[in-house]
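Exercise 7.
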Amino acid sequence: MSFNRSAATQATLESDSDIKNAVFGLLARREYSMKELITKLKPKCCDESQLENVLFSLQESGYISDERFLESFLRQRINQGYGPMKIRFDMRDKGISAEMLDFAMEEQEVDWFSQALEVYRRKFKGEENYDAKGYAKRMRYMMQRGFDAEQTRYAIDAKEE
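Solution. The predicted structure, written as tokens, is:
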């Protein structure tokens, strides 16, 4: 079974307008960081320096914004129930600096303890009796979601209100 791609996604990006069209096509769906765009378009582009020049000019024009991407991605991850450690890890892969992320997280004013409690209650509602093995399972789940040990213990130890 073969997978058909449209001609636009298979074509190499040879001119500035080809690159711009590809970027606008991607940005129409969601925000991307500069690093993501470079990674995504580099295999399709003939000249890497031409790609970077076009992307930087679009960034200067305001079409590409790491700040806008960061705000959007951060809101999305928080709403999905991820903790600060997982978000930091994901952002590093997207090319966002730690300083930029710290600033954005402060602006969001997220109470990570209440976030951890909400995620915990959503996942483990109705399961109140558990042994040491169940406690370890809960700890692993919360830590894989990106919450630290203190936030995780708070969520597990909090009584139903």
